[in-house]
Amino acid sequence: MTVLNVKDLHKTFVLKDMSVKALDGVSFSVEEGDMVAVIGASGSGKTTLLNIIGLLDRQDSGELELFGETVDFSKDSKNAVIRNDRIGFVFQDYSLIANENAVFNVMLPLYFTKMSMGKMRKKAIEALKKAGFPETHMKNKVKLLSGGQKQRVAIARALVNDPDIILADEPTGALDSESSETVMNLLKDLNDAGKTVIVITHDPIVAEKCRRVIKLADGRIV
């Protein structure tokens, strides 16, 4: 089953008196259970592409299909539900609340549901265990955790709603080499278990861990 189909995407940003073409006719598809790396240097358009795939931004032209349906970016409420329920995000800067503990951070996507607090907490702990996060640190404030531990919390948060796609934006960019390998092995394990994973990276070592590599340069696939 094709879970993502990108057709001739274009996106231009206007900065003062200059236009920057972030995406220039990008087309590709991703099948269920695939693990794809989108690799490119800074400014290649890879983060713009991720934002559109993740329904955080919209293209100027072209078409985006998710889960067999063409995305209508005018339907904000519907897209918000898809974004929260079917897409899990992992960011380079973790995007965690530093003064709260790991369990609280993983529970956040569940606050948009009608789930009880007890069930939310249980699901958050299960997701943290799946991400290999130590139980002894679950009550620790995020600001006290190592970089690798923070990224495990971020991965657990991406998993807590059992999404169809995990989008990881430079998931190892702020980590040392050992923690980077651990995080990529975790993403690979999730993919082996059936999750569709798309990794945005500038690092060829990270890209090699994926089943397929898409190279971007100047907003185009090369």
Q: Write the CATH homologous superfamily.
A: P-loop containing nucleotide triphosphate hydrolases
> What portion of residues belong to β-strands?
25-35%
Instruction: Using the CA coordinates, give the radius of gyration.
Output: 17 Å
Taken in chain order, the helices and strands follow as: EEEHEEHEHHHEHEHEE
Helix- and strand-based class? alpha/beta
The pLDDT mean sits at 94
How many β strands by DSSP? Answer: 10
Low-confidence stretches: none
- Overall 3D geometry? globular
CATH class assignment: Alpha Beta
Oligomeric organization of the protein chains = single chain
Number of domains: 1
**CATH architecture descriptor name:** 3-Layer(aba) Sandwich
Q: Count helical runs.
A: 7
Can you give the helix content as a percent range?
25-40%
Strand order of the largest sheet: 6-7-8-3-9-10
Major sheet details? 6 strands, mixed
CATH topology: Rossmann fold
Distance between the termini: 25 Å
List keywords for this structure.
single chain, 222 residues, 6-stranded mixed beta sheet, Rossmann fold, 4-stranded antiparallel beta sheet, alpha/beta, globular
What does this structure look like?
There is one protein chain. This protein has 222 residues and is an alpha/beta fold. It has one domain (2-221): 3-Layer(aba) Sandwich (Rossmann fold). It contains seven helices and ten strands. Strand 4 (61-66) and strand 5 (69-70) form a beta hairpin. Helix 4 (117-130) crosses helix 5 and helix 5 packs parallel to helix 6. The chain is globular, with a radius of gyration of 17 Å. 41% of the residues are buried.
